Amino acid sequence: MNELFEKNIELDILILTEKLKKMKKLDKIGGIEYLKVILNSETTIAHSIFYAEELKNISIRRKIENKLNIALENIYSCETLEELDLEIECKKENKELQKIDKLISETIENYEDVKNGDYNFIQLGFPKIDEKIRYRQGTLNILAAETSIGKTAFALNIVLNNLKKGKKVLYFSLEMTNIEIMNRLLACYCDLNISKITDGKLTDMEITKMHSRSFDFLKFKFFCDDTAGLSFEEISRKINKENEKEKVDFVVIDHLGLIKTDNTKDTKNEKVGKITMGLKNLSKTLNFPILVLAQLNRGEASEQSKPPTLRRLRDSGNIEQDADTVMFLYRKNRQEQITDIMIEKNRNGELAKLEVVFSGWKQKFTELTNYNGGYNGYLGEKSKWFQKSW
After folding, report:
1. Which end of the chain lies in a sparser environment, N or C, as judged by fewer CB atoms within 10 Å?
2. Which CB contacts under 8 angstroms, 24+ apart, belong to 34-41?
3. What is residue 372's predicted lDDT score, i.e. its pLDDT?
């Protein structure tokens, strides 16, 4: 009591009880009942600040205690301390079994929301592709191709489309720098030549156009991390931290083969399998879709000229099993701009093959609606293809 008085804290039964608990002396002095006898326990407005602070501390203590209990329960079952740390961080209370009347009600309500345009999924931004596939909440989605086909460009087209809709997007670039990513977004958004942006050779008119349109980026909820060599655990912690600030709508990771794991004893297939399973669980726990870019194996010489299949996913592990969707980009001739979009796995829809045009000079994909001759999109010449902008 003297200590509280010296700190200018008014004596109150709640504050004094917590203080005695910390000192492990509450039972020794006769417990709460004894305090009620010696103190007037009526609360006043003057105590409200101390109450609020003390309740906050109690809440924090309980959260820490819960995490420590979880750690003690799982400390010997987890293979690595990093795995244990992530399990504690993502731990949620187990859901109760739900009766069918509640489930059917939620399902019908979800249908009505979708029908009325209140989507609970990420659209890719290409109408014909969106008819076949969409990235739903709690799903893991794979976009794969050989090198230099346009995986990153296609992913950034999807990102840009959703930023314009007000979505919050996290982008983990394990290969390119933030500046390289932003250059590609600017080229696509402003219809400017990517080479002229990177080499500083835009005309005065193009510079004015870039500066004018770049103000739109200030409204976008886009967060990019170009840290090299991130592990799955580090990516997960960053996603959790950002999601606590404001709900995340979409996460993109470029690319799967560069995500590190700490267990050196696992084979490559086992490592990739653990990463994809972890990402799937993370997307389900936090309830948003994750898109992961993946590299294709070169395969046999005879396979390289053929459309890709699921077995060509590099160090595939459990990719096919864990992913809700798998989509390939394919061009038989790398010099052409016509690109096949091959949906090879679609847990909530059909498989399909569609065509888009890749204008590499501005890092932009557009849907192909009609064919009427040749195309030279990379040089930026007038096209004989009729395109529909996304």
Report:
1. N
2. 39/11, 39/12, 39/13, 41/12, 41/13
3. 40
Higher pLDDT, 104 or 187: 187
Q: How far is CA 15 from the centre of its chain?
A: 43
Structural domain harbouring 369: 120-388
| pTM of the model as a whole | 0.70
Strand partners, 294: 144
Residues 15 and 163 in one domain: no
- Terminal alpha carbon distance of the chain: 70
Q: What is the pLDDT of residues 166-184, one digit of tens each?
A: 999 999 999 999 999 999 9
Nearest to 222 by CA among 309, 140, 162: 162
Asked if 361 and 379 count as a contact pair (C-beta separation under 8 A), the reply is yes
User: Tell me, what CATH number does 153's domain have?
Assistant: 3.40.50.300
Q: What is the pLDDT of residue 386?
A: 37
Q: In angstroms, rounded to a whole number, what is the distance separating the alpha carbons of residues 276 and 257? A: 11
Number of alpha carbons in the 13 Å side-chain half-sphere of residue 341: 24
The predicted-structure confidence for 49-76, as pLDDT tens digits, reads as follows 555 666 667 777 777 777 677 666 665 5
Higher pLDDT, 187 or 315: 187
